[in-house]
Amino acid sequence: MGTPDFAVPSLRILVQNGYKVAGVVTATDKYGGRGKKQLLESPVKKYAVEQGIPVLQPKNLKSPEFQEDLRALNANLQVVVAFRMLPETVWDMPEYGTFNLHGSLLPRYRGAAPINWAVINGDTETGVTTFFIRHEIDTGDVLLQEKMPIGPNETAGEVHDRMMMLGAETVLKTVQAIESGNYHLQKQDDAQATKAPKLFRETCEIDFDQPVEKVHNFVRGLSPYPAAWTTLEDKQLKILRAHYKKADVEATPGTFRSDNKSWIKIAALDGWLVIEELQLQGRKRMKAIDFLNGFSF
């Protein structure tokens, strides 16, 4: 059960290792592209169709018709990677249960955006967790955890792409452990739990009235999507990549400076955020030096 690119390697690794995938459950097709005229299939569906795996695309996971079709697949284990919340009648269906792959070291960062929040908070380490699904979201007993570092300038997108591969390997190890019965469940310590709530455009506006390192972490934690932003000449300016310089700043936080040739920087409390890549509303993503070819401060 999964939908985006992040879930594909986990499906692929099971197929490549000889596991019989009885079926795939993924999102319904949606119209997108120019003018929203093109019917778009999820990456998971595309791979499943290539492999001749049956695909279910329910609008409602509680519908009797879907649950009947799911039961007919006769799966003895369900694997969830980047999908929706499941009703108990679905996750409790197979004899070996249902496990989920989550993009953090649970109980840290329970919620929809664990990778983003780990980077925003300046963490130097994250990882993946597989756990059996239970009622409360991201609270089930842990099967396996694998750690990975976060680089000081790494974006959430870069962490995502590395985690996608680590996650696939962990899914395979988890299935092998369940198959052999050789695993030890560990309860999560709720006292150590932290949240990773969904991100919205309004919460992605940059607050420059804080230490520049925090601003830098905020930018990379939201890159490439949904992207941290500020305003320039009444237009939204997304900042997608930057670095920072600590320095005495005699400028109001949020003030732009540029040589109008090669660099743009914005004042924070104790230094400058130096923009490397940006996207002004209505224009494409570009490097700062290219942006300055057609824009003058």
Annotate the secondary structure layout:
Elements: H1 8-16, E1 24-25, E2 30-32, E3 38-40, H2 43-50, E4 55-56, H3 64-72, E5 78-81, H4 88-91, E6 98-102, H5 114-120, E7 125-132, E8 142-149, H6 156-180, H7 212-221, E9 228-232, E10 235-246, E11 256-258, E12 264-267, E13 271-280, E14 286-287, H8 288-291
Helix pairs in contact: 1-6, 5-7
Q: Sheet with the most strands?
A: 6 strands, antiparallel
Radius of gyration over alpha carbons? Answer: 22 Å
Span of the ends, CA to CA? 49 Å
Would you count the extended β strands for me?
14
Number of helical elements: 8
Helix-strand topology string? HEEEHEHEHEHEEHHEEEEEEH
Structural class: alpha+beta
Estimate the helix proportion, in percent.
25-40%
User: What is the mean predicted local confidence, pLDDT?
Assistant: 97
CATH superfamily of the largest domain: Formyl transferase, N-terminal domain
Give the CA-based shape. elongated
* Relative strand content: 15-25%
CATH class of the largest domain: Alpha Beta
What is the total domain count? 2
Oligomer: single chain
Q: Might you state the CATH topology name of the largest domain?
A: Rossmann fold
Low-pLDDT residue spans = none
CATH architecture heading of the largest domain: 3-Layer(aba) Sandwich
